[in-house]
Structure formats: structure tokens, C-alpha cells
Design a protein that fits this description.
This protein is mainly α and 74 residues long. It contains 1 helix and no strands.
């Protein structure tokens, strides 16, 4: 009887260890997803910054040309 109980306990422990290992893998996978999302957000932020800088540069360089064209057309 005790031997059977010990075997059952060992099986239960083994099953729990498997579940713990699965949960650790899921946690690691979720951490990887979070890291990848963080990288994506940083890339999007950089892209937005680049677009803003390009727009500002375009406006800064283009505005004097537009003003000259408007003066010539008068």
C-alpha cells in the first residue's frame, strides 16, 4: 500500500514538474514577445522622429523657395 502511494506521489510530483516547466517556457515566450514589442515601439518612435525631422527640414528649406516664387509671380 505504501509503495503504491509513493509511486502515485512520485507521478504527481513528475506531473507537477512538467507543468512548472511548461509554465516557465510560457513565461519565457511571453518575455520574448514583450522584448520584441518594445523593439517595435522603439523602431516606430524612431520612424516618427525621422519623419518629423524630414518634414521640418523640408519646410525649413522649402519655405524660402516658396516665398521667392511668390515674390517673382507678383
Amino acid at each position: 500500500m505504501q509503495k503504491k502511494q509513493i509511486e502515485q506521489n512520485e507521478k504527481t510530483i513528475g506531473d507537477q514538474e512538467d507543468k512548472i516547466a511548461d509554465q516557465k517556457k510560457k513565461i519565457n515566450d511571453q518575455e520574448d514577445i514583450i522584448v520584441n514589442k518594445e523593439k517595435t515601439i522603439k523602431q516606430k518612435d524612431k520612424l516618427i522622429e525621422d519623419i518629423f525631422n524630414y518634414t521640418k527640414e523640408f519646410t525649413d528649406k522649402g519655405l524660402p523657395l516658396i516665398e521667392r516664387i511668390n515674390e517673382v509671380q507678383k
